[in-house]
Amino acid sequence: EDQVTQSPEALRLQEGESSSLNCSYTVSGLRGLFWYRQDPGKGPEFLFTLYSAGEEKEKERLKATLTKKESFLHITAPKPEDSATYLCAVQFSGGYNKLIFGAGTRLAVHP
Amino acid sequence: DGGITQSPKYLFRKEGQNVTLSCEQNLNHDAMYWYRQDPGQGLRLIYYSQIVNDFQKGDIAEGYSVSREKKESFPLTVTSAQKNPTAFYLCASSKARGNTEAFFGQGTRLTVV
User: A18 vs A21, A48, B46, CA distance in Å?
Assistant: First the structure.
């Protein structure tokens, strides 16, 4: 069964304390892996797309990496405004553009 | 500004009522999607459409209906057959080819009263 699992469910960090969020997936024929940020009561905001193992993308304090079975979202020296839920989603061969989402990681960064 | 507009932001439904959620995009995207989000769960696909006048059921289509008469619009009707409709509903769109990242609207929160 195609599945996406994110860990941890929730993460609390002090401002400046770097960490990583994990997204593991079991799909047949990965076409793309997507990271989104979602603030409470809002729609997800697109962050990154990764297509192949070894690929990396960066944006400000965020860096996303991809292996054959998982992706990491590294947060370097986070600030309180980075607090949000981070969602991972995958597209797979045969699924057209359908996205399968993980349940998300709720990140809280405290000053 | 290009984007996806969902309305209303909040919607209240009485038992036995059908309600329609609006989704409009001006990104010139061919594909559009409806997702449902419940606390502690990932987004689940209700319906999607690749082109005008064509749509397919997603994973949880029972109790919902859609139409795609225009490229820009993909309204979702929550029917009385949906037994647990209280949720956050998200509309998204993407290109049909090439970079296919999906862009989302701001959501509609539906509550049964």
Answer: 10, 19, 36
CB contact under 8 A, B42 and A4: yes
Task: Give the residues across from B27 on adjacent strands.
Answer: none
Four-point Cα dihedral A75, A104, A100, B25, nearest 10? -80
Are the C-beta atoms of B48 and B31 separated by less than 8 Å? Answer: yes
- Residue B16's pLDDT is 86
Q: Does A41 contact B at CB distance below 8 Å? A: yes
Structure token digits, residue A83: 């607090």
Q: What is the pLDDT of residues A75-105, one digit of tens each?
A: 999 999 999 999 999 988 766 677 889 999 9
Residue from B88, B9, B33 nearest A89 by CA: B33
- CA gap B27, B25 in Å, rounded: 6
Interface test with B, best of A45, A55, A97 (most B CBs within 10 A): A97
